[in-house]
Amino acid sequence: MCLAIPAKVLTVNGQEALITVQGVQRTANLMLLEETVAPGDYVLLHAGFAIRKWTAAEAQEQELLLAEVGYTHRD
Questions:
Q1: Is the pTM for the entire model greater than 0.85?
Q2: Which residues does 48 contact at the CB level (< 8 Å), separation at least 6?
Q3: Domain 5-68 falls in which CATH fold?
Q4: Phi and psi dihedrals of 67, rounded to 5?
Q5: Which of 72, 20, 69 is nearest to 9 (CA)?
Q6: FRET label pair with 50: which of 18, 38, 59, 68, CA 20 to 30 Å apart?
Q7: Where along the chain do its domains lie?
Q8: Mean pLDDT, range 65-74, rounded to an integer
Q9: Closest Cα partner for 48 from 71, 60, 31, 72?
Q10: pLDDT tens digits for range 34-68
Q11: Pick from 41, 9, 54: nearest CA to 28
Q12: Element (H, E) at 63
């Protein structure tokens, strides 16, 4: 089962972004997004692809829900 998780954008370079999820940094592909993203924005990440831009409030709410079910990011 795959899970989409909130990620914070650290840097953007063309169609790739350096993101962080629970302190783990990795790259994400932005080609599926219609919106532009900038450092500090949040995205919904699925299988290495940003699939939706989120507000900080939406990301925080999702992180709280994931914590309630015991989810922790594993690299």
A1: no
A2: 26, 27, 28, 29
A3: SH3 type barrels. (2.30.30)
A4: -65, -35
A5: 20
A6: 68
A7: 5-68
A8: 71
A9: 31
A10: 999 999 999 999 999 999 999 888 888 887 877 77
A11: 9
A12: helix 56-68
Give the chain's length.
75
- 69: its two tokens: 């079910």
Instruction: Say how far apart CA 55 and CA 72 lie, in whole Å.
Output: 21
pLDDT in tens, 12-41: 999 999 999 888 999 999 999 999 999 999
Count the neighbouring beta carbons within 10 Å of the beta carbon of residue 55.
10
Q: Which structure tokens are listed for 26? A: 């990795």
CA distance 11 to 61: 23
- Rounded Cα distance between 64 and 28, Å, is 22
The tokens describing 19, both together, are 């993101």
